[in-house]
Write a structure and sequence with these properties.
single chain; 10% strand; 269 residues; 5-stranded parallel β-sheet; 46% helix
Length: 269
């Protein structure tokens, strides 16, 4: 009996040790509150005009920021349902190879792949009855995935094609942001505010859905204001736009961001 008791005790210790090891391996890292590396997950609204993430990065460099990383994972016409965010965040995946302008190849390593994952669904996915449940389902799913990898979920509120759509899209993004404790970037509201004040400026491409260069620049300024908490007013990078137009878009982005976050908060950021 004594021998059998010792064997059972040792077996119990082994089980507890294995459980402790598994717990350590599956510990969830704390999501960042300061964003220096950002993954943009979305569709062609992001990659128009040489990619919005490039304009945001140039604005930040103009502000004096250094050491920032941006990557864009976009699929034409996609909804968030199409994206495998878990695959984007796998170790040694996105960003694991770098080629300089002099064709020098390096294999950078990062303690954490991204500080934030910014997600945008298809423009009408938040409001169409058949797609709205999927909008909320996949924002919740991808937000959980981002947090599992130590990245803060961020929601990019897209622009609309009319004033009524603006309010509806905004309402769903705000709802999703609160449900998932995620920062919402109020780009759609910035578009509406700019159009109300300067209807002579065309923020849309010829298809009336995708952004013109001015639209992309306004969106990038809003990302800078919301995500990086940096005032774009006075930025020397103008994307080649006339100085007065760039200055106007910078101001609208900052004012919209400040007003929105004062009312709706900043989620986990």
């Amino acid at each position: 009996m004594h021998t059998r008791s010792v064997i059972l005790l040792l077996a119990g210790v082994a089980v507890m040790s294995a459980c402790s090891t598994r717990s350590l391996k599956t510990a969830v890292p704390t999501p960042s509150t300061e964003i220096k590396s950002l993954l943009w997950v979305g569709n062609s609204f992001f990659y128009y005009n040489n990619s919005m993430h490039d304009h945001a990065a140039r604005l930040m460099v103009a502000s004096g920021a250094a050491g920032l990383r941006n990557s864009s994972a976009t699929i034409s016409g996609s909804s968030l349902k199409w994206h495998d965010v878990e695959a984007y965040l796998r170790p040694n995946g996105v960003g694991s190879v770098s080629i300089s302008i002099k064709e020098e190849v390096s294999f950078p390593t990062h303690d954490k792949l991204f500080d934030g994952v910014m997600m945008m669904d298809c423009s009408q996915c938040p409001v169409l009855p058949k797609l709205q449940p999927l909008f909320h389902e996949y924002i919740a799913k991808h937000s959980a995935t981002a947090r599992k990898h130590g990245a803060a979920p961020i929601l990019f509120m897209s622009w609309a094609y009319g004033s009524e759509m603006t309010a509806k899209v905004a309402a769903e993004y705000i709802k999703a942001g609160k449900q998932n404790h995620a920062l919402v970037v109020p780009v759609g509201l910035a578009f509406a505010n700019a159009i109300a004040e300067r209807p002579d400026l065309d923020l849309y491409a010829v298809d009336r859905r995708h952004p013109s260069l001015m639209g992309t620049y306004l969106a990038a300024c809003t990302v800078v204001a919301s995500v990086y908490k940096t005032n774009p007013i006075g930025a020397t990078y103008t994307a080649g736009l006339p100085d007065d137009v760039a200055a106007f878009l910078q101001r609208v982005a900052w004012d919209t961001s400040q007003t929105f976050h004062a009312k709706e908060g900043r989620g986990g950021l």
